[in-house]
Amino acid sequence: MVHCQIGSGIIATFWHDNWTSFGPLIELVGERGPLVTGIHIDAVISEALNREGWWLDRSRSRSPTITLLRAYLPNAQEVINSEVDDTFVGFQNLEEEMGVSRPVRLGERSITTRRLSFWHKAVWFTGRIPKHAFITWIAARDRMVTRDRLRSWGLTVPANCVLCSTHQESRNHLLFECAYSAHVWSFFVSRLHLSPPQGFEAILRWLTAPSRDTNVALIVRLIFQAVLYLIWKEMNGRVHTLVEKSVRAIIAEVKQLIRLRLDPVAHRQVLEPWQLSVLAVWLLHFAE
């Protein structure tokens, strides 16, 4: 059986992969597991987590299924704080939906499948922030729960965008046709002297090779994912708390997140004396 060495939990599935050393959880608790727990059948591990730990830790249910799962689940903080990918030992079929290639080891042979989604490099690049990559993956697959989707499911919700109130809310509008999100995105790409295309999927394709400068390429990919993550967070915040952040506040938060991420990345870089680190390039464009 294939064993998953759990990292950030954004690749391995909660129910089907063998990541707890007890075998796939669906085989331990049965087919009613997703129904009892509320963790959907195709969820990846990170979807079963919140900032504090496992969603199941907050459940007051006395269900034997939930009690059993709690006993099998590892320390949540190790997964939450991980910055490495989940890895698989043994044979594993490619899951095209993930847009990720996995190594396949058979005896002494090593084969890697290569059928990658066009957005692969925009999502799973080295140096990414795991929680930002996860929501970017959700957006790339067009699975964001925006108001157009809610209405298509028959829910009675307003159609207009939570952020700008002037257009119907959809993934493509939110990223970055909306005046609010477009203002944030354009601030950063203009500082980098880049000219990305219009349209979410066009931007994803552009991000596969946004600059010949590898430092700039990493920076703009990190910015894209951070802006996407914070726009999504702001949209949900306005719905649930009625608290609004200004564009300036979002920009400041993006700057802080990227600055903190680039510091350890820069320390790991091996550079020639004349080369600038990725952090130095960032400061060149964004130091106030």
Notes on the structure:
With 288 residues, the protein is mainly alpha-helical. It folds into 2 domains: 3-112, no CATH class; 120-286, no CATH class. Helices cover 45% and strands 5% of the residues. The chain contains 13 helices and 4 strands. The protein has helices at residues 25-29, 33-37, 64-72, 76-80, 120-123, 130-140, 147-152, 171-177, 179-191, 200-206, 214-241, 247-268, 278-286, and strands spanning 3-5, 87-89, 103-106, 109-112. Strands 1-2 form a two-stranded antiparallel sheet. Strand 3 and strand 4 form a beta hairpin. The longest helix is centred in the last third of the chain and has 28 residues, at 214-241. The radius of gyration is 20 Å and the shape is globular. Residues 91-98 and 100-115 have low confidence and may be disordered.
